[in-house]
């Protein structure tokens, strides 16, 4: 229960959409605006355990300078959907042209109307939901096979380089 749940805009929108998590509802929403940790009374799990317990990570960002959550899903072997408005989505689209085949979908949002992108996202989620257990396991195995490219030991040098370039540009500008 949120401390101020009556004024939370996300909960208000979920209610407006009729997503109330009633027993008969076919769609259930997990909304947790707090860090997931072992001391959190709702989950009592490490963040990594929580992510590994998910079937699919869905992050159709309108804006995200980078977007760690889809990357974290992939690093932990969980298929994910991101958008081309997230830095990570743009990076992955450029570097991994076969991303759809191994569990990373990049939702095109740039220059598209909201409802068009939302319809595309719904189709992608439905396609995932229609996979049988063997299909989900096979997809997860593909993500696992590609997860090493997202380990910190491989990405850290790019972060350090970006940091150094930003500092150099700042000091060059005066």
Give your account of this protein's structure:
Strand 2, helix 4 (87-95) and strand 3 (104-107) form a beta-alpha-beta unit. With 174 residues, this protein is mainly α. The longest helix is centred in the C-terminal third of the chain and has 22 residues, at 152-173. The model has no long low-confidence stretch (mean pLDDT 91). The protein contains seven helices and three strands, in the order ααβαβαβααα. The protein has a domain at 57-173: Glycogen Phosphorylase B (Rossmann fold, 3-Layer(aba) Sandwich). Strands 1-2-3 form a three-stranded parallel β-sheet, with helices on both faces. It has helices at residues 9-16, 47-52, 68-75, 87-95, 114-129, 133-146, 152-173, and strands at 57-58, 80-83, 104-107.
């Amino acid at each position: 229960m949120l401390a101020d749940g009556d004024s939370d805009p996300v909960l208000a929108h979920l209610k407006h959409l009729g997503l109330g998590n009633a027993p008969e509802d076919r769609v259930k929403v997990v909304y947790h605006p707090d860090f997931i940790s072992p001391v959190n009374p709702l989950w009592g799990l490490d963040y990594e355990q929580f992510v590994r317990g998910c079937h699919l990570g869905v992050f159709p960002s309108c804006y995200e300078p980078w977007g760690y959550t889809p990357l974290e899903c992939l690093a932990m072997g969980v298929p994910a959907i991101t958008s081309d408005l997230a830095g990570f989505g743009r990076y992955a689209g450029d570097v991994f042209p076969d991303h759809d085949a191994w569990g990373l979908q990049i939702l095109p949002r740039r220059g598209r109307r909201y409802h068009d992108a939302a319809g595309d996202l719904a189709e992608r989620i439905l396609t995932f939901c229609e996979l049988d257990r063997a299909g989900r396991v096979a997809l997860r195995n593909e993500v696992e096979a590609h997860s090493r490219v997202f380990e910190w030991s491989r990405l850290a040098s790019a972060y350090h380089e970006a940091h150094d370039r930003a500092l150099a540009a700042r000091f060059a500008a005066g």
